UniProtKB/TrEMBL annotation:
Domain EAL: 444-691
InterPro entries: CheY-like_superfamily (IPR011006), Cyclic-di-GMP_PDE-like (IPR050706), EAL_dom (IPR001633), EAL_sf (IPR035919), GGDEF_dom (IPR000160), Nucleotide_cyclase (IPR029787), PAS (IPR000014), PAS-like_dom_sf (IPR035965)
Lineage: Bacteria, Pseudomonadati, Pseudomonadota, Gammaproteobacteria, Lysobacterales
Protein name: EAL domain-containing protein
Domain GGDEF span(s) in chain numbering: 300-433
Length: 691
């Protein structure tokens, strides 16, 4: 389960203090969790919220008077929903523990212990998602069993289920193959009775092996015998299964009408990719499933590698699209040359390869990945009439009991490939759950070095997106976005590195770089005759002292720019939890003519209350309001409300992430001042929009 930005936490906070509730929401958001909070003003509002929308966690203050704790529990119980309630306290003692247990709360969280609060919320959220997943899985299993039963019955392949050598189920095709009319004629009959006499002894040994839990052969060729005693060549395929909760063997029987050697050749072709000769994706996935199951059962260790050629699109441009298959085939040949005889290799995607090595410890897995990487780095690939060098990025997983799940294994391997590509390629990212701390530390330190290098050697760059005015004369306004250039001159998105920068105290330096370069751009534009306003994002770290204010004053004077042309943006949630520092910073910026605005506005518990304490020059709506805006009347109403209230105080409003013409029409009608988004113009390195 992926928490955080991929899965929002729908949080219901019952607390008399809006500020205290907002502090908890900010704490969780600062931890990387996308929180969608709600706060009832009274018991009726609580009942309406519980009835109208799903929630994940309830945080209820033990001393709340808007809705008493006991009533919260009664309302939650009456809703019939699986909704965990955590009780908020400032400290803890035995009576409070007993009270929480008596009313059915899942636990107690302490306000002065933010890390413990976060961990408790995350644990309860994970448990809730596990329960939800289990219920979905149980329903899915029941539905799958029903469908499988129908499919088996209607299948043209003869299929039977065998328990301890006896028939417990058979479909119509199976009965027809052996000459039976009804299952009652075959129920309880030994499978040995369906085998020609000369094969009985060997087949009896096979059944004994299966009863001991040994894996079945993929194919078993023999002569089968029908009800009338006639024999015919057949192939049996065995698969471990369950029937009505009992372990058994599923048997698929096929008449062997073709030459056996030809049949084997056809089966081999069916499992291969025709361009590369490697296994195809479905065949490889079956092998991976078996390997992961072995790791779960026997605590064995195996290696999975996903391999992609670096700069694939550029390579295709060099050699031509018509030679794409030649390039893939050349990569496959090079891969086969360095693999061992027992390694399993496949074409896993259009230009992605997969390698599975069984019984491989971490050191062996890393050595295999390095062998593959070095083999491509030093090789010249022949693709028809062209020769070229192509490095590869490798994402690997050390499969073991801690990650004995096919989806998790593939997910981690895919992340490794993307991460390796993101920092320039020709790299290996091997995830080992048993050494995750070490691997993560190495990855983080590498990123810290890249960020430090970007600050010191100007590897950051700015992209600019225009803001289009919906009312009044057109102004030249752009928002600046930070990008990082890696070692190969490729762009890296900020979400890849900003969290690491925050954890290692580098955000304040990034803020200085962003603001300084924005002022330089404003100065250059002014000299060229353009009165351009630039919006930039800064972080709450810069509110801690006046160093950024001093830096702005120096840069404005140096580049001949006016403060009115610069707008700084802070997230609403950060201003709420750093209000005094934000107020002081805004006042200092105002002396320079610089405006400070709020972004991600409207997602807090009481956004308008913040505006009465913070003199925001503009507000930018949270981008979640733009999701399917034409079909979401609640979002439309909220936007109109925000616009009306901000206009009363002469504050400008901005809507970002505009996706279509219908949204533009709604925003215009609501009175939004400026809009931006891919629909209007994408962000790019140049300021060349025709306002």
């Amino acid at each position: 389960m992926q928490f955080g930005k991929d899965l929002p936490l729908r949080l219901l906070v019952v607390d008399d203090s809006v500020e205290a509730a907002e502090a908890i929401v900010s704490l969780l958001r600062n931890s990387g969790i996308a929180v969608r909070p709600s706060r009832p003003e009274n018991a009726d509002a609580l009942a309406e919220m519980l009835a109208g929308q799903p929630f994940d966690i309830v945080l209820a203050a033990h001393d709340a008077t808007t809705v008493a704790l006991e009533e919260v529990m009664q309302r939650v119980d009456a809703s019939g929903k699986d909704l965990p309630v955590l009780v908020l306290h400032d400290d803890i003692d035995t009576p409070r523990l007993l009270r929480a247990a008596a009313i059915g709360a899942r636990g107690i969280v302490l306000r002065p212990q933010p890390e413990l609060l976060r961990e408790t919320v995350m644990r309860e959220w994970a448990d809730l998602e596990a329960r939800r997943s289990l219920r979905k899985l149980e329903n899915h299993v029941r539905e799958t069993e029903r469908r499988c039963d129908a499919l088996i019955e209607s299948s043209r392949d003869p299929i039977a289920y065998i328990h301890e050598g006896m028939h417990i189920r058979a479909n119509a095709a199976y009965l027809e193959t052996f000459g039976f009319e009804d299952f009652e004629e075959i129920e309880g009959m030994s499978l040995l009775d369906m085998v020609a006499p000369q094969h009985v002894d060997d087949f009896k040994q096979l059944l004994k092996k299966l009863s001991r839990g040994e894996p079945p052969p993929p194919r078993y060729e023999l002569e089968a015998r029908g009800l009338d005693g006639s024999a015919f060549p057949a192939v049996m395929e065995f698969t471990a299964a369950t029937y009505e909760g009992e372990p058994c063997q599923q048997v698929v029987l096929r008449r062997q009408e073709l030459d056996p050697e030809l049949a084997r050749e056809v089966e081999e072709l069916r499992q291969r990719d025709q361009v590369t000769g490697l296994l195809n994706r479905p065949t490889f996935l079956r092998a991976l499933e078996d390997t992961v199951a072995d790791a779960a059962e026997k605590a064995s260790q195996h290696a999975l590698l996903l391999i992609e050629p670096d700069h694939y699109a550029r390579l295709l441009q060099d050699i031509g699209l018509d030679e794409a298959d030649d390039l893939v085939a050349a990569c496959a040949r090079r891969l086969r040359e360095v693999l061992g005889p027992d390694d399993i290799a496949a074409r896993f995607g259009e230009h992605q390869f997969a390698v599975l090595r069984r019984n491989s410890e971490h050191a062996d897995s890393m050595a295999l990945a390095e062998t593959v990487r070095a083999a491509f780095a030093s090789a010249v690939l022949d693709t028809g009439s062209r020769s070229l060098n192509a490095t590869v990025s490798i994402g690997g997983v050390q499969i073991g009991q801690k990650i004995a799940n096919v989806s998790s294994v593939l997910g981690k391997a895919s992340q490794g490939v993307l991460s390796a590509i993101g920092v320039g390629g020709n790299r290996i990212e091997l995830f080992d759950p048993s050494a995750a701390d070490r691997a993560e530390e190495e990855r983080v330190q590498a990123w810290v070095g890249r960020i430090r290098d970007a600050i010191d050697h100007d590897r950051f760059i700015m992209h600019f997106q225009p803001l289009v005015g919906l009312h009044g004369p057109p102004d030249q306004i752009y928002e600046a976005y930070l990008r990082l250039l890696n070692e190969h001159g490729e762009l890296v998105q900020p979400m890849t590195f900003l969290q690491i920068a925050e954890e290692h105290g580098l955000l304040w330096e990034i803020d200085r770089w962003v603001v300084g370069h924005a002022i330089a751009v404003i100065g250059e534009r002014r000299k060229a005759g353009h009165d351009t306003t630039v919006l930039v994002k800064i972080t709450e770290v810069s509110l801690q002292d006046d160093s950024l204010l001093k830096h702005m004053a120096e840069q404005l004077a140096r580049h001949g720019a006016e403060g009115r042309q610069l707008v700084l943006q802070l997230p609403e949630s950060k201003v709420f939890t750093h209000l005094r520092a934000a107020q002081a910073f805004q006042q200092g910026a105002a002396k320079l003519g610089v405006r400070v605005g709020l972004e991600q506005f409207g997602r807090g518990l009481n956004s308008f209350q913040l505006l009465s304490h913070f003199d925001a020059g503009l507000v930018k709506l949270d981008r979640s309001f733009m999701d399917d805006l034409p079909n979401n009347p609640d979002h439309q109403a909220r936007i109109r409300e925000i616009t009306a209230k901000t206009r009363e105080n002469n504050r400008l409003t901005i809507a970002e992430f505009v996706q279509d013409a219908s949204s533009m029409s709604i925003l215009f009608g609501a009175g939004i001042d400026y809009a931006q988004g891919q629909f209007l113009a994408p962000a790019g390195p140049e300021m060349n929009y025709e306002f």
